[in-house]
């Protein structure tokens, strides 16, 4: 089966920025895929190219084997994009917006699916409301319904939960999970890393137009970034300096509290405890914190400031 999205050697220049510098990546069919990166990394540019809305300078991009330039119509039909910005025509009702969008794809009798979308996105009561009369969160839900009106196999969500309240975010994710479970490929960009961690099977991280990581979420989180060990100690005198041998690992020492950074797989907690005991120091409390996606992300996109 063709990859849901295949990007090869993609370059894009704006007048003053080389926004994509030879990006290659593939999203497998049926995957829940995360596209992460700091502000200005090139995520929206990449999405807009996949959607056939932005020209590029070099490379190839295909949606389920259809070239986004040579086979634009087919590629576009297979894709639903929920844009970052909420754009709408204030003169139409919610149902009209969805009917018009169906018309763009040549779909006539689409009412049953429109009803299903309205229901799933909790918009049924607002079907006859004018777009301008909706709250921001509701408008965003209409954008999602609009992107799905032609039942695309591949769905791209560009920051769908930015500025959305917790309740709506939960219901959106429940809906997106259902879409994924029913066989759709989902590509998500988000600045909420815990969302990506919870939802995505694989994650690509781009930074300043370059792919800096592409791996399963699990493997990314397991990358050898340190774990934090927090200790409460009892000593005759508060410690003035870290015990010998542990000093390079100690990040903070405050009286009887000590925080150490341990390297995954090579540093053992037991050895730390033994080293402390050898100095007559007892440990009264201990807490360990694993690196999360946020730590990995920061590590991979840490910028060399000029
Ligand atoms: N239409 C445009 N004209 C000129 N430069 C642009 C245009 N769109 C984006 N850029 C520039 O291209 C680079 C990539 O921007 P892009 O919007 O793709 O990043 P992003 O990863 O989506 O960022 P964010 O997380 O802030 O949405 C940035 O330096 C941006 O200023």
UniProtKB/TrEMBL annotation:
Q: Which InterPro entries match?
A: AAA+_ATPase, ABC_transporter-like_ATP-bd, ABC_transporter-like_CS, ABC_transporter_ATP-binding, P-loop_NTPase
Per UniProt, the keywords (alphabetical) are:
ATP-binding, Nodulation, Nucleotide-binding, Transport
Q: Which SUPFAM superfamilies match?
A: P-loop containing nucleoside triphosphate hydrolases
One Pfam match, given by its short name, reads ABC_tran
What family is it from? Answer: Belongs to the ABC transporter superfamily.
Where do the ABC transporter domain residues begin and end?
5-233
Q: Does the keyword Nucleotide-binding apply?
A: yes
Gene3D superfamilies per record: P-loop containing nucleotide triphosphate hydrolases (3.40.50.300)
Q: Does this UniProt record's set of keywords contain Transport?
A: yes
Recorded GO MF terms: ATP binding; ATP hydrolysis activity
- The name under which this protein is listed is ABC transporter ATP-binding protein
